[in-house]
Design a protein that fits this description.
305 residues; AA-Vitamin_Transporters; EmrE-like; DMT family transporter; mainly alpha; globular; 0% strand; disordered C terminus; single chain
Length: 305
């Protein structure tokens, strides 16, 4: 089934960009009372329990018939949650935040060739590719010249590889999620968290020891992270991928850094980068060019060939 991009899908990715852009602020608050590995485990574990309970109350109807589909689901669970979370946790200890931001923005550039060969209706046209490259250039302008600057930390090369590997996880899982057969989105979301928890919980124990005793404020932030940017946002991500496709979903990776910068300035009084306006113009131009066909259909105009 070819992707069907609607006005609802645009609203959904705008909401995801805002939610995930604000996640960095909440993570900073949570990390004051808990280690990064247990924070990732807490987010995924709570999101898994929440979505599993709601899905169970709704009848717990799944979908898959053969072993191939179950195998694909297992891979999606690993690549959507636990593995990229752990790779980023390791990578951010050795690289600059600018490089990590560029790595996440590169997800859509990784999705393009994968979707071209594996998903009907997601061909790499010149217009689409050029649009995404322009949007990526906007991210580079936003982050500034420090995007590729060396952090000076030991293990920086491995840290950069870990960030790029995390981006690859998101790209591959987006394509695989799209290729699954008809499925209950809530059940799919719950199962990805359950599978991810099976990996991240023992990994957190090995990395940081037994679960730490945290204060009520830290626990509150962990619950917030598990409920909104993890459980709710990943359900929304799956809905977008299943209806509009992984390439369209990739646009959110251009929105998150902009939202993060704007929220940081608004809430934490952080200075705005000098290239913000130019970056936003490039990002918007790139998004518009790459999705010209979808926008034309949305506004009932004849698309360019």
């Amino acid at each position: 089934m070819e992707p069907q991009i609607t006005a609802r899908n645009w609203i959904q990715i705008l909401a995801l960009g805002l939610v995930w852009g604000a996640t960095f602020l909440v993570m900073e608050l949570a990390l004051r009372g808990i280690g990064p590995a247990w924070l990732a485990a807490g987010r995924i574990g709570f999101a898994g329990l929440l979505t599993l309970a709601i899905w169970w109350l709704r009848g717990a109807r799944l979908f898959l018939g053969d072993a191939t589909d179950w195998g694909t689901l297992a891979i999606c669970g690993l690549l959507s949650t636990a593995l990229p979370f752990m790779l980023l946790t390791f990578g951010l200890q050795h690289v600059t935040s600018g490089f990590a931001g560029v790595s996440m923005a590169a997800v859509v550039l990784m999705v393009l060739p994968l979707a071209h060969f594996l998903i009907p209706g997601e061909k790499m046209t010149l217009r689409r590719t050029l649009g995404f490259v322009i949007g990526f250039a906007g991210i580079l302008v936003l982050i500034g010249p420090g995007a590729f600057a060396a952090s000076g930390a030991e293990g920086e090369v491995l840290g950069r590889l870990a960030c790029l590997a995390a981006a690859s996880c998101y790209a591959i899982s987006s394509v695989l999620l799209r290729r699954l057969p008809a499925i209950d989105p809530l059940g799919l979301t719950a199962m990805t968290f359950v599978i991810g928890s099976a990996l991240v919980l023992p990994a957190a124990w090995l990395m940081e020891g037994p679960p730490p005793r945290t204060d009520a404020i830290t626990l509150f932030w962990v619950v917030v992270l598990g409920m909104i940017p993890t459980a709710a946002a990943n359900l929304l991500r799956i809905l977008v991928i299943r209806s509009a496709g992984p390439v369209f979903m990739g646009l959110v990776n251009y929105m998150v850094p902009v939202a993060s910068v704007l929220l940081g300035a608004l809430i934490l009084s952080e200075p705005l980068p000098p290239g913000l306006l130019s970056a936003m113009m490039l990002i918007l131009a790139g998004m518009g060019l790459s999705q010209y066909g979808a926008l034309s259909r949305l506004f009932r105009r004849r698309p360019l060939p």
